[in-house]
Design a protein that fits this description.
This protein has about 200 residues and is mainly alpha-helical. It has 2 domains: about 70 residues, Fe,Mn superoxide dismutase (SOD) domain (Helix Hairpins); about 100 residues, 3-Layer(bab) Sandwich (minor pseudopilin epsh fold), CATH 3.55.40.20.
Length: about 200
């Protein structure tokens, strides 16, 4: 059974970047609903025991179109939000910059961490409607950035050998209570509570 990530911080701990009401709604309602529905669909599809990544990477094996679509949307919502919430920490606790191998690869490919942030913010801000901006790694250690609509990710998009290590959620429920239509402001502020130590561990 898939479990929703338990937040290692109080609902108001991410303020002023993300307000308590947004955390309570986003995690406590939206993510909880994705998790519950995904578990129901996995059982219905006879896929119990498989990982979310495996299910999303092999959606074509599900013949029922309605069930396949549900697994894609609800499974993506479950997995994407686990990745998103795991990387967030109160501003005073978040590691503000990467080190080691991840930093070296970022500088090699993008020139600097700031340049990478600019690229990711631009990708996420330009996503029409709901979706995500991603930083991911390939098996050879190279990094890729991309955006996805709705609850898609590298697994459901069939991007072989691409593992997400950092996620920018641009669904309106992630920011609209505080930032209204100012998505770019939300993305800029979000970096203050992204803990790069989590991305470093994923990169390893």
């Amino acid at each position: 059974m898939f479990e929703q990530i338990k937040l290692p911080y109080a609902s108001d701990a991410l303020e002023p970047v993300i307000d308590a009401a947004t955390v309570e709604t986003h995690h406590g309602k939206h993510h909880a609903a994705y998790t519950k529905t995904f578990n129901e669909l996995v059982e219905k599809a006879g896929l119990t025991g498989k990982s979310a990544e495996e299910i999303l990477s092999n959606l074509d094996a599900v013949s029922d179109l309605t069930l396949r679509t549900g697994l894609r949307n609800q499974g993506g919502g479950y997995l994407n939000h686990n990745i998103y919430f795991e990387q967030l920490r109160p501003e005073a606790e978040a590691k503000k910059a990467p080190e080691g191998a991840l930093l070296a690869q970022i500088e090699k490919q993008f020139g600097s961490v700031d340049k990478l942030k600019e690229e990711l913010n631009a990708l996420a801000a330009s996503q029409f409607g709901s979706g995500w901006g991603w930083l991911a790694k390939k098996a050879d250690g190279t990094l890729v950035t991309f955006k996805s609509a709705n609850q898609d990710n590298s697994y459901s998009l069939g991007m072989d050998d691409v593992t997400p290590i950092l996620a920018l959620d641009v669904w309106e429920h992630a920011y609209y209570l505080k930032y209204r239509n100012l998505r770019a402001d939300y993305l800029k502020a979000l970096w203050n509570i992204i803990d790069w130590s989590v991305a470093e561990e994923r990169y390893k």
